[in-house]
From TrEMBL:
SUPFAM superfamilies for the chain: beta-lactamase/transpeptidase-like (SSF56601), Lysozyme-like (SSF53955)
Species whose genome carries this gene: Paramicrobacterium humi
Key words, A-Z: Carboxypeptidase, Glycosyltransferase, Hydrolase, Multifunctional enzyme, Protease, Transferase
Taxonomy, superkingdom: Bacteria
Compositionally biased residues, Low complexity: 822-833
Extent of the signal sequence: none
GO BP annotations, alphabetical order: peptidoglycan biosynthetic process; proteolysis
Catalytic activity line of the entry: [GlcNAc-(1->4)-Mur2Ac(oyl-L-Ala-gamma-D-Glu-L-Lys-D-Ala-D-Ala)](n)-di-trans,octa-cis-undecaprenyl diphosphate + beta-D-GlcNAc-(1->4)-Mur2Ac(oyl-L-Ala-gamma-D-Glu-L-Lys-D-Ala-D-Ala)-di-trans,octa-cis-undecaprenyl diphosphate = [GlcNAc-(1->4)-Mur2Ac(oyl-L-Ala-gamma-D-Glu-L-Lys-D-Ala-D-Ala)](n+1)-di-trans,octa-cis-undecaprenyl diphosphate + di-trans,octa-cis-undecaprenyl diphosphate + H(+); Preferential cleavage: (Ac)2-L-Lys-D-Ala-|-D-Ala. Also transpeptidation of peptidyl-alanyl moieties that are N-acyl substituents of D-alanine
Transmembrane segments: none
Domain PASTA as annotated: residue spans: 710-773, 774-844
Name of the protein: Membrane carboxypeptidase (Penicillin-binding protein)
Region annotation Disordered: where it falls in the sequence: 806-833
InterPro entries per record: Beta-lactam/transpept-like, Glyco_trans_51, Glycosyltr_51/Transpeptidase, Lysozyme-like_dom_sf, PASTA_dom, PBP_transglycosylase, PCN-bd_Tpept
Gene Ontology CC annotation, any one: outer membrane-bounded periplasmic space
Length: 851
């Protein structure tokens, strides 16, 4: 716009400035022709003294470029989203159409290839015009315009707030004489340092084209759906014409009454035609080319960039996870704001681990089974898959739509991840956590075939925080509890997910060790706090409400990789704007547990899928291990599975702890909410096996599957309490027979046990105690006596109920044994009640009778 009429004093000052500038310009005339000689030998000349304090060379920082996040679809990289403050993609000289180069030179600086960086004629004309108060004139060469754009970009890159940006911009792009001198000085320096083609390329890459569109490549793509290399003559002239006033001449406002679709983008067309005329005038195009281009209508094909993760559709939550990885990693900058700036300005091509083939299968299956919203239910559902041995995240889906909108079915919270990576506070893992107990059990040298007393009772534990008890122990019910308690092997307890078996295993372990094992495997709280070590409910996965599905998938991936734990990672490769590769952070792997322990745990958990609670999710005939999980009142349901190639966690439940809806009473798309995990898992496993295969798991360690035999202590004559304590102390379960037995032992004391004292049986077996009634007597030995003598002896001992067996036994020595007692029942010295029937079997006499 025209400036206000200037005062005489202002005009005088301006003229004095003009005189000084003109004197300097006289010296710079040399630079206009031969830049290599500029300023040579003239430092003492007062006409250029003003330049002594100005830096000669302009440091050109890398251009602000958009960063792109890619996923993999087979062998093809697919763009998920772009991030930018300036939507720019820098291109090389041979990637720019000659039409664009010629249009820029013909229109903006027809003497570009002749002068030394300064359009002296245009500059002086602009100075005179600005001095006397006419319209502000540019009068700058392409090199000078490039200098101004570089200075402006530095302002945008370095300014910390709006006020600093405004001041910096005024200094860089103002119309005062000092700025013009500085611009000229820099232009001369640039011409010494760079070739003309390099300067023109820089100019075409840095120029703005309206809004956040910068550089000819992004402009060509955005406005015409093509590249800077493939634009037509008419398109090239249109784009270069826009440089004159980008926001006025932009083509993405079709409803603009002054420059819109209805009037054929009149303002932009007028400027385009000026460009075409200049190109014809300076011999850049033929008359025929001009005639064809001038008749061409401006018909933009706006191609919206995939800006931000919201544009990534069903891949948005994974995209968000990648951005959070960058924001949290010092490799991308010293502070969080620096890292965001790197993402939005750094021109990074970020190639991720996401496999769109698996992602589509998981997403389609999840959305078909779990809708984004059901009235009255805070419904959530996720599936996430990790590659064992690398930690690469292969798929990550969620039932909701990615958005900050405050309405049902929409959220920007990623239920799969930890809080620092865009996630929620996590969920209760239920019985999937029992795997952590199993691994610690094996690390302590216990066998999966050890028997434990999983009867419902009170339990006592050791922890690093001191001893704790679990009065009454856990309940056993449903998928999460595995039915009634009892004395079972650890294998059976895991297969059927019996809570009391896990509670009994915990008595031989340390809760703090179990928490450490979980951490080593990769399972941790989503809020970053330490895992609980004070509550025995951790043994069955109900003490933590803060575990993310990605964390659980990672822990099972560690087992599938033979105990090798790798931190989850989503970035495979990063290519910087200069074409070099940036070192990818977060590739930390370590051997978390021994291979033999991992192999044994895996083999134990395969039976969960083939014989136990995971059968509904099994792909039969394939090597798969896993564990189901259901939390109190079916708030959360889980199935975590793995092959050697992929580990997956499926979670379906309530996103809020309060006012939740039990999944076993909620019908969702024709299925009970508690059963959805099975169908989802089958679909996902089938796809992972199709894509990656599945190898057989290593065999379990025989030392960790052995049957453990222990000698039963002798408890005869002890009180029931003392006998129970002795047996439990030796690692056996105890039960007491309901009926007392005849015995010479004092009534109320233990007569004997079964198995008997001294027997060797499986560790943890149950021993039954038989209590004496105090009425027992020893049966006399009457074998070899005549029936009459035997009867008298027994009656004399108090046993009046004597019987003869119906059949006799042939004697080995008839002369000696005929007609005598062969056997007696009860046997000699057995303890029996006085009224117990004593049966005598006789040897046959010479007539075949037993007398």
């Amino acid at each position: 716009m025209p400036e206000q009429k200037r005062t005489a004093r202002g005009v005088l000052g301006g003229l004095l400035g003009f005189v000084g500038l003109s004197a300097a310009a006289g010296v710079l005339a040399t630079a206009a022709v031969t830049p290599a000689l500029a300023m040579a030998g003239m430092s003492a000349n007062s006409a250029i003294g003003v330049f002594d304090s100005l830096p000669e060379y302009l440091e050109i920082s890398p251009l602000m470029e958009k960063s792109n996040i890619y996923a993999k679809d087979g062998d093809k990289n697919v763009l998920l989203a772009s991030f930018y403050e300036q939507n720019r993609e820098e291109v090389q000289w041979d990637q720019i159409s000659q039409y664009l180069k010629d249009a820029a030179v013909a229109t903006e600086d027809n003497r570009f290839y002749d002068h030394g960086g300064i359009d002296l004629t245009g500059t002086l004309r602009a100075v005179v015009s600005n001095t006397v108060g006419d319209d502000v004139q540019g009068g700058s060469s392409i090199t000078q315009q490039y200098v101004k754009n570089v200075l402006v970009q530095e302002c945008e890159r370095l300014s910390e707030d709006e006020e600093a940006l405004r001041k910096c911009y005024e200094e860089a792009a103002g119309v005062d004489y000092a700025r013009k001198l500085k611009e000229m000085r820099y232009a001369v320096g640039l011409e010494k340092k760079y070739s003309k083609d390099e300067i023109l390329r820089g100019y075409l890459n840095i120029s703005g084209f309206g809004g956040v569109i910068y550089g000819v490549q992004s402009a060509a793509n955005y406005y015409f759906g093509t590249s800077a290399k493939d634009v037509t003559l008419a398109q090239a002239a249109t784009l270069i014409g826009m440089v004159n006033n980008p926001n006025l001449l932009r083509l993405d406002k079709p409803d603009n009454p002054d420059n819109g679709k209805d009037n054929g983008y009149a303002l932009t067309k007028k400027r385009r035609d000026v460009v075409l005329q200049a190109m014809l005038h300076y011999g850049k195009i033929t008359q025929k080319q001009y005639d064809e281009a001038i008749e061409t209508k401006i018909e933009p094909k706006i191609t919206q960039p995939k800006g931000g993760c919201a544009s990534a559709g069903s891949n948005a939550y994974f995209c968000d996870y990648v951005t959070k990885l960058i924001r949290n990693d010092p490799a991308f900058g010293a502070t969080a704001s620096d890292r965001v700036a790197t993402l939005k300005r750094g021109g990074l091509d970020i190639y991720t681990s996401l496999d769109l083939r698996l992602q589509k299968t998981e997403g389609d299956a999840l959305h078909a089974a779990v809708p984004s919203h059901i009235d009255g239910v805070n419904l959530g559902g996720t599936a996430v898959t990790i590659e064992p041995g690398t930690g690469r995240v292969l798929a990550m889906v969620q039932n909701t739509a990615y958005s900050n909108a405050k309405k049902p079915g929409y959220t920007s919270v990623n239920y799969n991840t930890d809080q620092d990576y865009g996630g929620s506070s996590g969920f209760q893992p239920g019985s999937t956590w029992k795997t952590m107990v199993l691994v610690d059990w094996l690390l302590e040298g216990h066998s999966i075939n050890e028997t434990v007393n999983g009867t419902r009772r009170s339990f006592s534990y050791d922890t690093c925080n001191g001893p704790v008890t679990w009065p009454g122990g856990p309940k056993n019910a449903g998928d999460g509890g595995g039915g009634p308690g009892g004395v079972f092997t650890v294998q059976h307890g895991m297969t059927q997910s019996i809570n009391t078996v896990l509670a009994a295993m915990g008595e031989k372990l340390d809760l703090c060790d179990i928490a450490q094992v979980a951490k080593d495997l990769g399972a941790h709280r989503a809020d970053g706090e330490p895992l609980s070590t004070a509550y025995p409910t951790a043994l069955i996965g109900t003490s933590e409400d803060t575990i993310a599905p990605l964390s659980m998938a990672n822990a099972y991936a560690t087992l599938a990789a033979g105990g090798k734990h790798c931190e989850p990672r989503a970035i495979d490769k990063i290519v910087q704007s200069d074409g070099s590769e940036m070192q990818v952070p977060g590739q930390d792997c370590n051997q978390a547990i021994p291979e033999n322990v991992a192999a044994t745990a895996v083999q134990t958990l395969t039976k969960v899928m083939t014989q136990g609670t995971g059968r509904g999710g099994m792909v039969w005939g394939q090597p798969i291990f896993g564990k189901t999980g259901t939390t109190d009142n079916y708030k959360d349901t889980w199935l975590v599975t793995a092959t050697t190639k992929a580990a997956n966690a499926v979670w379906v439940g309530n996103t809020l702890t309060k006012n939740f809806t039990p999944m076993n009473r909620t019908w969702i798309n024709g299925s009970l909410g508690s059963q959805i995990k099975f169908g989802l898992t089958r679909t996902i496993l089938s796809k992972t096996i199709e894509l990656y295969g599945a190898d057989q798991f290593p065999q379990a360690d025989s030392n960790l599957t052995r049957r453990i035999l222990k000698e039963v202590p002798s408890v005869a004559g002890m009180s029931v309490e003392q006998a129970t304590s002795t047996l439990k102390g030796a690692g056996f379960g105890v039960s007491v027979s309901d009926e007392q037995v005849p015995s010479t032992v004092q009534a109320g004391l233990v007569d004997h046990s079964d198995p008997a004292g001294g027997a060797r049986v499986s560790a943890g077996s149950s021993v039954t105690l038989y209590v004496s009634n105090g009425k027992g007597q020893a049966v006399p030995n009457v074998v070899g006596q005549t029936y009459h003598d035997a009867e008298q002896a027994l009656k004399s001992a108090g046993f009046g109920n004597v019987k003869r067996a119906g059949e006799c036994t042939e004697p080995g020595n008839p002369a000696k044994d005929a007609g005598k007692v062969a056997t007696q029942d009860p046997a000699a010295d057995a303890t029996a009640n006085p009224d117990t029937a004593i049966t005598l079997t006789m040897y046959c006499d010479d007539k075949g009778n037993g007398r």
